[in-house]
Amino acid sequence: MSQGVIAVLIKSDLKLPQGLYTSLSICLFFAIGLKGGVALKATTISELGLPVLATVIISLLTPTLAYNVCRRIGKLDRTDAAAMAAHYGSVSAVTFIAATTFAQMQGLKPEGLLPALVAVLEVPAILLALWLVLRKEPGKEMKTLMHELLTGRAIILLLGGLLIGVLATSTGIEQVQPLFGDLFRGALTIFLLEMGLVAGSKLANLKQHGTFLLLFGTILPLINGAIGAAAGVLAGLSTSGAGVLGAMAASASYIAAPAAVQIMLPKARASLYLTGSIAVTFTSVRRQHFRIATELDRVVRFRRTS
Q: Long-range contacts: 141-144, Cβ < 8 Å, 24+?
């Protein structure tokens, strides 16, 4: 992704074909859901309980924390604070994919239930963040928002792939196996290049909101990541599973949350929430989220057994 940022900074004419972002995101979301579904076959329903509960708690805690930091420290109005909270309380599906891939490259095997937790983390966090401001504005319709969230591309592809993976036979899975391997990593590489170009285009906004966005977009995700990893440990996830959950909690949404905010909070400043989520958080601390969360998980497990 850094290549994309550098290309923007040196004013290169590098541009990916129109529609490539959508095509790649469809492939990636479906592939990670399908792969998770295959692994989920070995998971019992009772094993889902604590991880789902932990994820719901994270989805309520992180947007509340973000909202209060923006209001009390950043001195943002309620609309901008709610928009920021929606982004930092929700999850970046791309960061989830990157964290999962990073874990696998280290020889680790995160639980197959994690793609389902993406949906659990994404929807409640956005709804809570928006409720914090919309509760004082009667007449706002939440039905439209719920429909947009639950039928969004990321949710449908992740959950659809998850279901297909659970139901598919071993022969059927073998036929699409390349989607999990080299093709997946290649698509992810190009996708991150595109995200680098987008992030680079938002860097100019740091001149206007620089200090707060840099501190908020760097420090808060690390706190959220620690919360996510600790919750994963308490929920009984493996080291890699807790690490990925920590990365999910630390990430900031730039797909579902912007769409929801544009619908429900049109007056919120995109220069704040997009610059923070893409140019700062996604660019600067994406891999550190997983590493810090994993190390915290290992420390907690060591203390448990000692």
A: 144/263
13-21: long-range pairs with CB below 8 Å, 24+: 14/197, 15/197, 16/190, 16/193, 16/194, 16/197, 20/190, 20/194, 21/191, 21/194
210 vs 225, which has greater pLDDT?
225
Minimal CA–CA distance to 253: which of 281, 228, 214, 224? 281
Torsion 220-282-70-78 (CA) sign: negative
| Residue 199 near residue 1, CB atoms below 8 Å | yes
Q: What are phi and psi of 288, to 5 degrees?
A: -60, -30
Amino acid found at 2? S
Going by C-alpha positions, the residue among 186, 202, 167 that lies closest to residue 284 is 202
For residue 277, how many other CB atoms are within 10 A of its CB? 29
Cα 66 from Cα 212, distance rounded (Å):
13
Alpha helix locations (H) across the chain?
Answer: 2-9, 20-40, 49-72, 78-89, 93-105, 114-134, 142-150, 153-167, 170-175, 182-202, 206-234, 239-250, 256-264, 270-274, 283-284, 286-305
- CA dist 196 and 3 (Å) reads 7
Give tens-digit pLDDT for 290-306: 555 555 555 555 555 65
Cβ-contact 248, 232 below 8 angstroms: no
User: Residue 255 — φ and ψ, nearest 5°?
Assistant: -120, -65
DSSP 3: H
Whole-model pTM above 0.85?
no
